[in-house]
Amino acid sequence: MQMIPFDKRDGFIWINGSFEKWDEAKVHVLNHGLHYASCVFEGIRIYNGKIFKLNEHIQRLYKSAEILDLQIPFQLNDICLHVKDVVKKQNVKNGYIRPVVWRGSEMMAISAEKASTNIAIACWEWPSYFSPDKLLQGINLSVAEWTRPSPQSAPTNSKAAGLYMICSLSKHKAEKAGFDDALMLDYRGYIAEATGANIFFVKNGELFTPKPDCFLDGITRQTVIKIAKRIKIKVTENHFKIDFLSNCSEAFLTGTAVEITPINSIDNYKFKERIITKKLIDEFNKEVIS
How high is the mean pLDDT of the chain? Predict the structure, then answer.
């Protein structure tokens, strides 16, 4: 089935205080967010009509905007209400919400503090990122050439659009080589994350995950850690080199888009078991609909 382009869909998008028809929701080609990456965003899931972790996501949106010196012209609580309005107007029961904030078109230069800050909220039906068959099999990753930058060279604690450029490049190369995604190392050579999701490993019945000191501590990641601790699975957050994978029995990704997705392989490292992963998937599924 051919996907409908995102600029050709039906419905409405909320922009700067009012609804606009989906195909008429436009920004000027000379906006600062496009040319200089002054743009932040969020991805939020809807399960059976329930918005998962709405407040946490919008709080992070505001934090990301603050880091990029963007002043959102609405109160946080009001944006939460507008998100709910968008979901209701679009009549989405299981889907995805994309709030996005960007600097406007008033100034076209590196320095553009006087330019406006704009915000839009879109919502659409969206099934799981990977098909149920693919999820059961596990996905295959390769190690990316690009590395996650240091906090001194990029605003790594924000969900900023510019940080995803190397993610797209890494994922494109992985897909061309027959993989589903790429594992990114950080600037020190430690395991960081996939191109759009956090990563976990299982060894001897315990859970291990990279310390998020140069990439986002994902909201789904935080949820999985809390679930694991609740069901008495030990969790270790630390720095790991790639050879740590040699004795791991399981691996999986976490994120709003991928939810919890098992990994079958990372290059020559294989992960055949799913025992802990399945437990966490079951508990996560209970949490998102509770």
Answer: 95
